[in-house]
């Protein structure tokens, strides 16, 4: 597969919309959650449920499981909001909580079967993405080890930078780059094998 085709294939994972809110505003909302304000938890849900759900769906491969993990995440946020210490952005902290909840739920389960993106979770793919065939990419993604899959999902679906991914996963930036490199090679091999 050419580098351009690989790039088009990886763009099939729609990027999370950039939020224009100031990080201080998110921190204020999280502080209100820590004080027991249920409406503030609702605000966080409105802001982050879509990107968190998309991340969890790609990790779990199943809509129902992703919804359950999202609910577990919200409960964990409700219980642990007071532990947030502003060492990272609120969004990075939320992705970290979601990732831990996903690992707790998915531990010991076999890799997910390929799944179609849920309605409303992502914009429709454009002509470039359709030309590369999203089904093949999704099937290849499901074959990745969880450590590589979560890096790919955070980088290409959630549009997070290497430092943010490293913080969420608790690994060095170099390891993020290495996992992305290996994941791209695996995805390329899976997609090329299907083309032959």
From TrEMBL:
Q: Which Pfam families match?
A: Sigma70_r2, Sigma70_r4_2
**PROSITE patterns in the cross-refs:** SIGMA70_ECF
Where composition is biased (Low complexity), the residues are: 118-130
* Residues of the signal peptide: none
Q: Which residues form the RNA polymerase sigma factor 70 region 4 type domain?
A: 136-187
As recorded in UniProt, coiled-coil segments are none
Domain RNA polymerase sigma-70 region, residue spans = 44-107
Instruction: Identify the keywords attached in UniProt to this record, alphabetized.
Output: DNA-binding, Sigma factor, Transcription, Transcription regulation
Q: Where is this region: Disordered?
A: 106-130
- What NCBIfam families does the annotation carry? sigma70-ECF
Family of this protein: Belongs to the sigma-70 factor family. ECF subfamily.
Protein name (Swiss-Prot/TrEMBL): RNA polymerase sigma factor
């Amino acid at each position: 597969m050419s580098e351009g085709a690989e790039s088009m294939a990886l763009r099939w994972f729609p990027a999370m919309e950039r939020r224009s809110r100031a990080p201080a505003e998110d921190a204020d909302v999280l502080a209100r959650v820590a004080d027991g304000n249920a409406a503030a938890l609702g605000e966080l849900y409105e802001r982050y449920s879509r990107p968190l759900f998309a991340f969890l769906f790609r990790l779990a491969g199943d809509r129902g499981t992703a919804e359950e993990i999202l609910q577990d995440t919200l409960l964990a946020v409700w219980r642990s909001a007071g532990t947030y210490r502003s060492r990272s952005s609120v969004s990075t902290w939320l992705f970290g909580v979601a990732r831990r909840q996903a690992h707790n739920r998915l531990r010991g389960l076999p890799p997910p079967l390929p799944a179609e993106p849920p309605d409303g979770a992502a914009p429709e793919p454009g002509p470039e993405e359709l030309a590369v065939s999203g089904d093949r990419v999704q099937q290849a993604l499901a074959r990745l080890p969880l450590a590589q899959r979560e890096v790919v999902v955070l980088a290409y679906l959630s549009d997070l930078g290497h430092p943010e991914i490293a913080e969420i996963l608790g690994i060095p930036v170099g390891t993020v780059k290495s996992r992305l490199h290996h994941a791209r090679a695996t995805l390329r091999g899976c997609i090329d094998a299907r083309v032959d």
